[in-house]
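The aim of this short unit is practical: by the end, you should be able to scan a pair of folded records and say something sensible about each. We start with the first protein, listed as its amino acid sequence and then its structure tokens.
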Amino acid sequence: MANAAAARPVATLTAPLDRKQDAADAPRLLWWPAQRPDGRLVRRPSGQRAPGSPQPASDRCLLLQRGDTELAAAFVSVAPDTERAPVIRFPTPWPRSFGTCTVAPGGDLAVFAGVHALRAVDPTGAVRWEVRHGCWDGSCPTLHTAYEEYAADRSHQYADSGSAVFSADGTLVWAHIRGPAAAAGPDPEALDEWLVIDAADGRVLGRADAETAAAGSDHVPHPDPARMGLCVGEGQDGVPMLWGRWDGANLSVERFCNDERILTAVSPSGERFLTVTHYEETLGVHRVDDGSVLCALDSDTAIPRHPGADPDDVDADVALWDYTCGFLDEETVIAGTSERDEEYGEPRHWLVGAGEAGMRVTARITYPFPISGGVTALGDGTWYTVSESGDALHIWSR
């Protein structure tokens, strides 16, 4: 049986938007690693803290919550007696079911990745720039000019989607779109494209054929603003993983892991990344430079049977990793098995050593009150869980 490791409550962050009647998504934290010119990671703790108790860097971490008519963002501070940062509110160009969104590290610009366009909006609602592209509804060949053209069409409400994220220094936007981008003219061969965009004015600086057919996608930022990870969901067809490098003139792309692993996190140094296999059986730590597996851990041999499982239920023996997992530090991973666990009782989270000796479960995390769902690591020794009602985030440390 794994050792127990007690989680210490660091802060509870309440959602800025009302969740009643499903009026908004649950909140999440958006985090970027900072970097010095020599490439080494910088930590920026805020306020006073007890010895040995890490805190998220308040100027690098944003609390985000999306509603249908506004996107709320606030800089996070968990220092004692710190007044809560004011909420920055961005008017949304379309309801939340029509795409994804992100916010710049400075909190001054939001980018909405919609069905027909990427749109950058400031807190006043002014459109800074827009990049139009092919329609994410696979049956629609139209290059739309406005959301209103398909707002009432039911099929567009269930369209596939792309994603966008700012680089760690906020100067670039990396965006995965359905081709072709309107500025480039129609290209009958383009399906999904990966763009590097100047965050200031929306100029497309670099582009590459993603060679994917996405149902959805997620970007995973790297400490180096010129590098980015992209994980593309293609349903049962696989999960292509792309690594991009922008040298100031050209976007080069590598494809790792044979479309079988989901990219979840980059280590604080930027030298390693973490994956979960498509069917959640195996965690893996990889080298960023070439995607090679440094160490791996199978859930069926590492995780004990859930104590609440029916002893006659043979399938209950099979634990599966959650898709949300990450690095607490360079050699410690935090991962959950909550998706399967919740069939039998309380969800379980695990500390996993990931050093030169390989991967192994070192402890099961215990909490002072019931928690729900998976776990998201912030790379500085802390992690968060979402409350069962979806109206708050709980931040934890060891």
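Turning to the second protein, read its sequence before its tokens, just as you did above.
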Amino acid sequence: MIAHHVLFWLKADITAEEKNAFQKSLSTLEQIEVVKFFHLGTPAPIERTVVDTTYTFSLFLAFEDLAAHDVYQVHPLHKAFLDEFRVFFDRVVIYDAQ
């Protein structure tokens, strides 16, 4: 299994409408056939010094294997999301684990 966790920090000047469009587009990634698990969230209200709550959205996906992850990376839905919305975020951090 490959766990793919992506944290997005959106730009400060993003409007509520743009933020909603970003979230809606992220949601379409669940439709990609190689995605075995999908979770889209925002920071939980947990106040501990070791918990980072500065990001805007968290995307967590699980894939069967590295080959499935590679299919996801070039899938038209993933590419469309990146093409349209990469200008919305200041920062992105990705953690991949097996």
